Amino acid sequence: MAQRDPSKTEKATPKRRKKARNKGNVPKSQELTKALTILAGSVGLLFYIDFLAKDMQTLFRHFLGNAFGFNPNQQNVIKLLMWLAGELAAMLLPIMLFIGFTAWLVLRLQVGKLWTTEVFKFNWSRFNILAALKRMFASPETFVRLGKSLLQALFIGVAPYIIIRREMHNFLPLYYSDAQSIGAYMLKTGWDMVRYALVPMFIIAIADFWYTRWSYEENLKMTKDETKDERKQAEGDPVVRAQQRRKMMQMMAKRMLQDVPKADVVITNPTHFAIALRYDATEAPAPIVLAKGADNLAQKIKEVAREHGVPIRENKPLAQALYKAVEVGDMIPAELFQAVATVLASLWKFKAGRAS
């Protein structure tokens, strides 16, 4: 039934669509399937009628040719019925398979590949008499189905009337025709009736196809709160994500502070940034950033460096460039080699001077 809740203004999310599809709730027009199946059966009969006629002639010749010698006892009658059922099944099976395949193909094109067992699960709500009566008498869907049924009954009833009225003058000459001519005339007239009925049926089917899709989309619509809740479930609660991010940053900061004592130098902004560097030719061809931080974290890096005697050097341009260009654990870029090497060289020269 089409959604009438004015608060549901948002289109269904992919998750909502997938959930409905898994439950077997998909848009499909029964009228389109019905019309195309009838058309396929009629077209199939047109191509198959010659083979069917030959099989029928063979069947009647066999049946009537052995009629006088047939002993109608119980055993023979059963054998005859079984043989006749097999022959009729073999005659009708191709056209029935074609019609069945057409019905399956039309549904497959409408709903795509779908297999679910949800439709077989027992649901007590289906046995709610009050809800069923409400759907029957107070649902717009009921009036839509009633309108479709009345229109189809009208057109299917009018088509034979038009054909019979048109063919009235051809009925009397049939008295002088042979059986084959009468059969051909009946098939042609029947095909005309089918064509006359199929045109309005297809118009109804197209309208039903559009209405089914529109009604399905209206049913799946969501309120703004529902879309927000679903987005939170998909992405996580912003508060929880912020807490997780905060904990992750604390863990990273703790790990970085543990590595600061291993640094050769801490380069500062001096107050906003602090970057701890270590250079060991046996580990990497260029200095590595062991820790970096801004504001409060920068102050903590400097405190740890002082506690463990790691030299601190102020170099605003270099500190800003390192903070923006290098992540923790990475080597410094080539364009900063010279600036960092100058700082390290001055440190080593200072250490060498103190040692002497």
Q: Nutshell version of this structure?
A:
This protein is 67% helix and 6% strand.
Query: What is the straight-line distance between the termini?
Result: 93 Å
Query: What average pLDDT do the residues reach?
Result: 79
Shape: elongated
- Counted up, domains total 3
Low-confidence stretches: 352-356
Helix content: 55-70%
Would you mind describing this structure in some detail?
This protein starts with 13 loop residues before the first helix and ends with a helix. It has 356 residues and is mainly alpha-helical. The chain folds into three domains: 22-114, no CATH class; 125-221, no CATH class; 259-355, name from scop (3-Layer(aba) Sandwich), CATH 3.40.1690.10. Mean pLDDT is 79; it is low at 352-356. The protein has helices at 14-22, 30-65, 74-111, 129-137, 140-166, 168-171, 179-220, 224-235, 238-259, 296-307, 316-325, 337-355; strands at 265-268, 273-278, 288-294, 312-314. Strands 3-2-1-4 form a four-stranded mixed beta sheet, sandwiched between helices. The protein is 67% helix and 6% strand.
Features:
membrane, cilium, flagellum, single chain, cell projection, four-stranded mixed sheet, about 350 residues, bacterial flagellum biogenesis, mainly alpha, 3 domains
